[in-house]
Amino acid sequence: MKKIVSFVFFFSILATSYGQKNSLSAENIRIKYKIPELAYAVVSSDSIFEIQTLGYQRINSSYKAKIDDKFRLGSLTKTITSYIAMILVKEGKIKLDTKFFDLYPELKANSNPGLYNVTLKDFLTFRAPIPTWSYGNETPLQKEIKGNNQQQRYEFISWFLKQNQIVSERQELYRSNPSYVAAGLMLEKASGKSYETLAKELGKNLNIDFGFGQPNVIDENQPWGHDENLNPEKPALNYKLNWLSSAGNINCSLPDYCKFTQMQLKALLGKSKIISAEEFNLMHTGLPEFSFGWYSEINEKSGLKYSFHYGNPGTFLTKVYICPAINKAFIIFANVQSEEADKGLMLLLDELQQQYKG
């Protein structure tokens, strides 16, 4: 208990010391763009310039935002999955060119021949030509997917591949959540561990508490997500979230995701003892538009190159933008998903980038 108290106390001091510079502007954005809770941070590889949470965990409530509040990361989960994959590659447990059906040969006969040669790299970089699927899809039904969490993910991919769906028209990217579900299954087979265990072990090594699903399921005093009409999402288990665990189901606090982001920055600057700067740059910007879990772009105003990702899992919004050239990263979380809220987050991002020469 003392450890938890000291953790909260530390980040309370941290937020008081560093979080005030843009807090008024952020609060105005939060109110104007109808965001119940807004959290943001500006970090370098070894420093936190600002970190702040504003507003309320739940709309029309007295539950004020706390620095250790957890947010559903949505597709930011993919940045974590990609890092786990790179660690397993470095450990020699799997290769980027390992084929999916070499690990799961029993699924090959009922799958589209056009997918027979897809690899871990193809899945992690959105180059596998498979269609999209997400929480809103009506099929498969819950009763069709049996077993524990790990078995359900296997059954889901088995079902998905049996649909014999393949995108015939060539695209630069195939942004499909099942790509990361398949990648997660490959990591499970290669390591002999569930995806949850892999994420928890990574979290332990980085002193990060990675959780899964809606934060308010475990603790109602954590942020509630809100839809575009600002309806709060009540605590409930969503079976489809488990199917997509390696694609978009991790939750964590802003301070914890800061640690993960700072680790990424350190590695990009050649300060990692595990993965080289060259390997990390390949991971972030090695391929056009999207590499291993990271998009990349040139900022039109500054001309600086960023790697970034964003999450929009229905009731939360998350964004992370990393620029090694200035040794800065910008992280913004919100417990609502709407076009209006997204505009507010992008406005805050632009303000922070301009202020920090990004």
Brief summary:
With 358 residues, the chain is α+β, with helices and mostly antiparallel strands. 41% of the residues lie in helices and 14% in strands. Mean pLDDT is 92; it is low at 1-18.
Task: Outline the structure in words.
With 358 residues, the protein is of the alpha+beta class. It is built from 14 helices and nine strands. It has helices spanning 2-18, 23-32, 77-90, 100-103, 120-124, 149-162, 177-191, 195-206, 215-218, 239-243, 245-248, 254-268, 277-285, 339-355, and strands at residues 37-43, 48-55, 70-72, 211-212, 250-253, 295-298, 305-311, 317-323, 328-334. A hairpin with a 4-residue loop joins strand 1 and strand 2 (48-55). Helix 3 (77-90) runs parallel beside helix 7 (177-191) and helix 6 (149-162) crosses helix 7 (177-191). The longest helix is centred in the first third of the chain and has 17 residues, at 2-18. The chain is globular. 45% of the residues are buried.
Poorly predicted regions are 1-18
The coarse silhouette is globular
Radius of gyration: 20 Å
Spatial gap, N to C terminus: 40 Å
Strand order of the largest sheet: 2-1-9-8-7-6
Q: What integer is the average pLDDT?
A: 92
Give a count of the beta strands, DSSP E runs of length 2 or more. 9
Q: How much helix is in the residues?
A: 40-55%
Largest sheet: 6 strands, antiparallel
Give the number of helices. Answer: 14
Secondary-structure element order, N to C: HHEEEHHHHHHEHHHEHHEEEEH
Derived from helix and strand composition plus strand pairing, the structural class reads alpha+beta
Percent strand equals 5-15%
